[in-house]
Amino acid sequence: MGGKITTIEYDENVVEQAIKNFKREGVAETIEVKTGDAQEIIPQIESDRFDLIFQDVGDKRLYPLLFDDCIRVLKPGGLLVAEDTLFPVMNRFKKSHEELVESINKFNQMVADDPR
Ligand SMILES: C[S@@+](CC[C@H](N)C(=O)[O-])C[C@H]1O[C@@H](n2cnc3c(N)ncnc32)[C@H](O)[C@@H]1O
User: Fold this and answer.
1) Nearest to residue 106, comparing CAs of 96, 95, 114, 116?
2) Which of 5, 9, 13, 17 to probe ligand 1 with, by most ligand atoms within 8 A of CB?
């Protein structure tokens, strides 16, 4: 079957646990873990690299900031999957998460307006 996964994580404890899990499950050879801030790492990745990106960070302010670079590193026809982008529509945010609504709305508008 083949295939490779690259994952980006800046919390070293999470990285350590993830690597343990990957080894335990026998998939460490197929998963490259990049340790650091996605905002710094993604711009350094060459274009047209991935078939699919799964974006899942709690800080949704990153979504609109990383959008163009995510599209750039996707192959033509690739898929960008972003977690939790319908919470504002469903009115599912807690009060403490209200500041994230603006970023998600901005991201959703960027997706809707983008022909890619
Ligand atoms: C919701 S968790 C998802 C983790 C993983 N995708 C999973 O399914 O187990 C979000 C993760 O993003 C990491 N994170 C948040 N901001 C980041 C950033 N700017 N760069 C890299 N990782 C980040 C957090 O440390 C956290 O582990």
Assistant:
1) 114
2) 9
38 lines ligand 1 (CB under 6 A): yes
* Parent domain of 103: 5-113
For residue 35, the domain's CATH number is 3.40.50.150
Confidence band, pLDDT 50/70/90 cuts, at residue 92: low
> What mean pLDDT is predicted for residues 83-87?
86
Span from the CA of 1 to the centroid of ligand 1 (angstroms)? 27
Higher pLDDT, 87 or 71: 71
What's the structural domain count of the chain?
A: 1
Cα(38) to ligand 1 centroid in Å equals: 9
> How much of the chain is in helix, strand and coil states, percent to nearest 5?
50, 20, 30
What number of H helices and E strands is found in the chain? 5, 4
Which residue's CA is the closest to the ligand 1 atom numbered 11? 57
DSSP state of 49: -
